[in-house]
């Protein structure tokens, strides 16, 4: 009640003087939508007919391209009679809502549809009665009136563009936000109710257009899942010719309804993306959807800046919000594609046209200047993913029964094993292609990759490419400028002329010419050299998985030596982590014939056969077999990372034993996705052999892990850090009963409010399932080395849930962790980011106590352009996958030195949040849990898909469906949210805060209300809450919402508090 009264008080008395009022009249209508209308642009793409028919052709049990949907439509006024025209390229998105900081926006919604919907905005301030989201938040009376707009009714939502939620200092003048219906948000959005909201800094707009911008476009990349639509039954009846025979649970039927689209248009049919060469273009991008929605939006032929960094690819996930700036170059028709290779072939493409409007050139013409000429051939080789035949980590043979590696390396009647015929790029000395260039010791680590192509700003690159393979191939670069005639991507232009650049036939040769003008090179914020890549793009999926990919390095002018090495850098390494899917290789049939002993018995559709061909590798090496990752103590080391693949390729590349700097942030784990590239700067300070591994659990067990070695090559000064601070923690591993959902009240009320009666596969025990309670092991803090008295958690620590204690350290500290294993099997405690005397983490046996020492030098703390305090994770590494899922993980918070204590009247709060799908099938205690909690343990089949799914607990700090308690603060508090991600390929989490935005440091201050986290993400988000209420905090990924990865945080009225020291 106190929140209700305060909200009312603020609403009536706390309204500031707004710059202007804006009104939008938006109706919710039901309409038929065509995902691939027959416009002229449809003819632009060469597509796989089978894929096109799967998604677009209707039939007895196929809906096809046309669906009934609910859409937001703008009207001229409150009569809701005349609609406002919108740009055709918006597709099915709602109208663009724009606001500058200081504006007050009234959104009048009228529901013309047949069921209730709402309007919920991101990134602006609103009171509870204007949130437009339904969930248990203790509101009553008029504060509930926004929760549902019933058919035929109207409601006015009031939004405030406040300073607290304005774009950050380093943000663009205008940034991307969104709005959508939020009764059952995933189902409402899948039904069509989503649109863009553009939020601008004060004074950025002129007549509703951003100043100094010629064109603006909004694009949403999404696999729209029509199976989740409220209108699925209607669509089956209307568009399937034999609706009575349709099985809506059939997997092929469901796949046919997942529409890979840009703004609701698939297979290149989005109309209207047109601009002039030299136009200043602003792109507002966002993603939406599910775990499959791992997008890489690539603008062919163009270079963009995003957050002041140069790129040609923007990674998008569900509710990810980005904007990018581009000066359009190179007249012609260019593809805007998702380079997630599964999405590319499923139709997630559009086209934009750059026209020559005779505008003055903004870029110098450097064609033919400072030419660097490369001679590269594509040729067949036999590639062995692990030449030693041994798992370097376990010292066991790769075909040892029950080992992780045997799945991939066992050769037999229907198994290929660890060697495959592949096509690779190799460099030659000249155009005769007779003398292949030998690789030196510094290039040994490149493995399967092609040669490094390097250039500086101002250079012209010529690549003479000779195809020695049996299929048409090409070279498509990233990070350089090229004309349509030099593009290596194969798609049919309007005249259907076959371009030599995009389709080099076997035994043919083509010379590409690319340039490196200033507009594609590193910006002032970028590192000296940018990591880029090149690949064959006749059929990108098949070509890349066949092996045709290599690294590029694009550098600032004057930064390279004559041999291409970066000045003032001792070592450069190129890493390409990917799941090479040999099932997609052009040479699969050859490999079956060559390496299986009964090729006629091979079923290429068999799931086990397909899994055996998914090679989790770095540069084509698995299980520690990559050579050449050697460096000296104190070296200046640059790592160039890049990746390609599909939604499985969510990577957290962890460098144990050392940290690096990237974009002003100090980290030890780099997140990579399809078409992502990163440059990391490292200065190793500890001798030893360390791991470079992917933290994504399936990738780690699948072999995506290598060793790198740091040696003392010359006399180095010792560690100059004075570890003056001493901190000692007493931590034990303790086995407990853990309940993911101690109360189901919130969950039941949510479903009641949504008017849904749904079962819960994760929490309902049923006949065979385990339910919500599991035996687990957790880190617990004790008062001293006797380990008799646990430290009782304070109110501000209640939110930690399953996490271990929130350990703190400052730069210059030495942290001693006295660890006692009170559990029944060996465990350990290992922290990210810290410096240790040894690269080995020794297991602690049951009943034993061991002391672990973590030093906190400067390189363990925040970067110069990072938050003052940054989080790291600590966990057990005896078996880091099973130990993690069994429960052993906690936060370590490292802060900069505080030479003096500063009087700070504001209260500082810290909340650590782990977003993780706890896979209880991988827990050490699975058998115990079946015996203890299943009603019929003898009938449980651990390999049953439904049983496996029931044990994947979508949790925040180990709690589900609103059960995480203790996230309580007051208006005006300074709040640090330390968000962490770990886990598997499903663990992409887009963390959304209702009611408030946060700031984060990224070589500059940025603002958002959604942050993306993945395995190995550790990030500080800073918030000063201003609006009282109980607010939803959740992952925006569709399946994760429905599975319970949501809770609430409470903002209480401000109180007069005594000041203190911080």
TrEMBL record:
| Record's keyword annotation contains Lyase | no
The superkingdom of the source organism is: Eukaryota
The entry describes its oligomerization and partners as: Found in a complex with MPO and LTF; interacts directly with MPO and LTF, which allows Fe(3+) incorporation into LTF, activation of CP ferroxidase activity and protection of CP antioxidant properties by MPO.
This chain's protein is named Ceruloplasmin
Q: Known PROSITE patterns for this protein?
A: MULTICOPPER_OXIDASE1, MULTICOPPER_OXIDASE2
Recorded GO MF terms: copper ion binding; ferroxidase activity; glutathione peroxidase activity; phospholipid-hydroperoxide glutathione peroxidase activity; protein-folding chaperone binding
Q: Which GO terms describe its cellular component?
A: extracellular space; plasma membrane
The catalysed reaction is: 4 nitric oxide + O2 + 2 H2O = 4 nitrite + 4 H(+); a hydroperoxide + 2 glutathione = an alcohol + glutathione disulfide + H2O; 2 glutathione + H2O2 = glutathione disulfide + 2 H2O; 4 Cu(+) + O2 + 4 H(+) = 4 Cu(2+) + 2 H2O
Member of which family? Belongs to the multicopper oxidase family.
**Could you tell me what this protein does?**
Multifunctional blue, copper-binding (6-7 atoms per molecule) glycoprotein. It has ferroxidase activity oxidizing Fe(2+) to Fe(3+) without releasing radical oxygen species. It is involved in iron transport across the cell membrane. Copper ions provide a large number of enzymatic activites. Oxidizes highly toxic ferrous ions to the ferric state for further incorporation onto apo-transferrins, catalyzes Cu(+) oxidation and promotes the oxidation of biogenic amines such as norepinephrin and serotonin.
A Pfam family (short name) is Cu-oxidase_2
The protein's UniProt keywords, in alphabetical order, are: Disulfide bond, Glycoprotein, Metal-binding, Oxidoreductase, Repeat, Secreted, Signal, Sodium
The cofactors named for this UniProt entry are: Cu(2+)
> What enzyme class is recorded for this protein?
oxidoreductase
Q: InterPro entries from the entry?
A: Ceruloplasmin-like_CuRO_5, Cu-oxidase-like_N, Cu-oxidase_2nd, Cu-oxidase_C, Cu-oxidase_fam, Cu_oxidase_CS, Cu_oxidase_Cu_BS, Cupredoxin
Q: Where in the cell is it found?
A: Secreted
Any one biological process term the GO annotation gives: intracellular iron ion homeostasis
Q: Where is the signal peptide?
A: 1-19
Known EC number(s)? 1.11.1.27, 1.11.1.9, 1.16.3.1, 1.16.3.4
Q: Which residues form the Plastocyanin-like domain?
A: 76-200, 223-357, 802-862, 951-1053
